[in-house]
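Review this chain:
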Amino acid sequence: MIKELEYTQLKKFCNTNTVTDIKKCSDKLIGQPNGAEALQFGLNVKGKGYNIYIAGLSASGKTTYAEKFAKMTAEKENTPDDMCYVLDFKKTGSPKLLKLKAGQGKEFKADMEEFVNHLSIEIPKAFSSVDFSDDKERVLKTYQKKKDELFKVLGEVAKNFDFGIKTSTSGGIYFMPIIDGKTINEEEYEELSEEEKEEISEGSDEVHELANSAMKRVRDLDKEAKKEIENMEYNIGLFTIGHFLNPLQEKYVDNKAVSEHLVSVKEDILDNIQMFIDDDEDGADDPLSAMMPWNFKRNTEDIYEKYNVNLIVDNSSLKGAPVIVDYNPTYSNLVGEIEYENENGNLTTDFMKIKPGLLHKANGGYLIFHAYDLLTNAFAWDTLKRALITNKVTIEPLKEYQFGGITVAGLQPEAAEINVKVIIVGSMYYYELLKEYDDDFSKLFKICALFDYEMDYNDENINSMLGFVKAYCDKKSLLPVDMGAMNTLTEYSVRLSERQDKLTTRFGLICDIIEEADTWARLDGCDKIDGSYVSKAINKRLERVNIYAKKYGKMISDNEILIDTEGLAVGQINGLCVMEMGDYTFGMPTRITASTYTGKAGIVNIEKEAEMSGSIHDKGMQVLIGYLGGKYAQKYPLTLSCRVCFEQSYNGVDGDSASSTETYAIISSLSECPINQELAVTGSMNQKGQIQPIGGVTYKIEGFFDVCRERGLTGSQGCIIPSSNVKDLVLKDEVVEAVKEGRFHIYAIDTIDDGIELLMGKKAGKLLASGGYSKGSVHYLVENKLKNYYKKASEN
């Protein structure tokens, strides 16, 4: 059935004036009932592997609503623990991870800083007190007295063997011979006779034995003195430390890990108490020791630094669970890193240079990524997957640091146990890619929330969309939008959905138009956005990207690309195609020709022979052959040679939307009935000759209309489309106006026969009871031509 469409059927004429109560949109996800349900369910289920993948087209609000819904859920959840790293005094290369309740990490860090400050003042103060000095002096004098008495006894005994003793500055003793009651030096000893030297030597052995015994006792006395002084220092240190540490131990008694760390701090200070009271310089620096995980320098600042706290996650200001959206998930951003400093040519680091990753910060909450970002950052996907499988994150560099040929192993911080729900936002392409090639993906991302690109055209959704527009304008401080602009925006939303009964859910594109319309209005000094500014924003947006459409149109106008828009031609027809150049989609006419002649080659697709035909187009050609065989080869086989070609096509052809168009060209060539070149055709077909819907019908019509308008509309030009595509028409106002004025026509058809009558101006012909077709009809002429081909082939 042939139906010429009225202008009212060519677009959705929206009237939002009937909407009297536009409410600002709430947190409801507009037009995504299935996506919203899947997202909410995925956020609430806490089982392992129930991470979420949100799939849909760009600008459909996936990231925005993922963050919004995650925050709504997170507000009701417990705030996770703070995390901090401290020095492990037993394994200085492996810092220890401590977890404290939210807010306590900040307190613990401040408490330890205050504790260290007190120590830096009170320990030196305690050891410089008069009481301590007097006690220490008393001990030293007591032991010095014992040593003096020992040396006195030793000197008296040595005199019996004609030896005197002297003590060295280092605490040692040496003996000098006595001759004639007077000690002699080395030079005087050399002047003695051999007999006198031998006599002295005979007594020296016994004296040396006595001296060794005495020196052993001296060393014992030194040890005892040192031990007693150390006990004094320990007791003073214990008292001083305990005065400040005991309150901390009581405060954090419920946290076992923190309590154990405080005990370790106390033990380390007491074991190294001399470092706090010895102000002497160390001397030359050891370059190798400077490269150790912790370089204990003998200066006040470094002595106390090892008792600091590196707070890597501070949730003190957080209410509920964390929600983090990240667009750069590199390896180091995910797991954290350890920074290094170059000091005098040596790489140094310590536990205070440990930096947290996103997995630390999002622990207990939600982490949102884009699939593209994850898959294009080296090691990011594997790192995230490993963390989700093990529920642990380890801070470690991808490779060891090297400097000056020396390898620095770096720290190995304790791994952190985490519980993070990850939400990945992306297209269905990445979802299918991961599902197909990664066996772990289905185990880790058990929830897929699909975002539709369109929603039903009804009052509820219109109200929601207009409420969204109003809320967006308020949020961005844009000019107010009047009802005329709302109408235009609604019509634009329908056009984006490419169906009269749908609205787009790609609100990001709507927002772009509002922003641009606001700019145009402000440039003109207006205080509101009306429909003209919305239309201007839409048209200007297209003008910025339609350079290729203009170039194609210019080539057609200059007859570089041959397209006829008037006259008749046999075996030649105007097809319609859609082209995409980045974000811009446009339609253009293309000439399709068919030549038929005697032979047995059958129908040959020239595009396929040139390897420029896609699989769907090849299928369309097979459907075409099936139609011709069913229509004309019931009594004898099809015996012909036919070549079908998309003229001046150099980029390849795919899709089956031209299968009906190619059929008309072949039938015209066989019947020798010319085709009206004022018409362009699109439509898929089946083997029964029924016309099926195609995509991009709006762009195709507008493409042919632009060519005809450029050359001058004759009043009889138009397009033929499938009847099932009428609901998809969202034509621009210029085309609608031309149809309204009768300067352009759009026809909807159901069968190939309908198209034949429109294009060739003859009846297609009906199948008679005798098996043939009505005389003079197009099918009759085709059948006769094929019969002649068969006879000639049989004769040959």
User: Anything to note?
Assistant: The first helix runs from residue 33 to 44. The chain is about 45% helix and 15% strand. The two ends are 42 Å apart (CA to CA). Confidence is low (pLDDT under 50) at residues 279-298, 401-407.
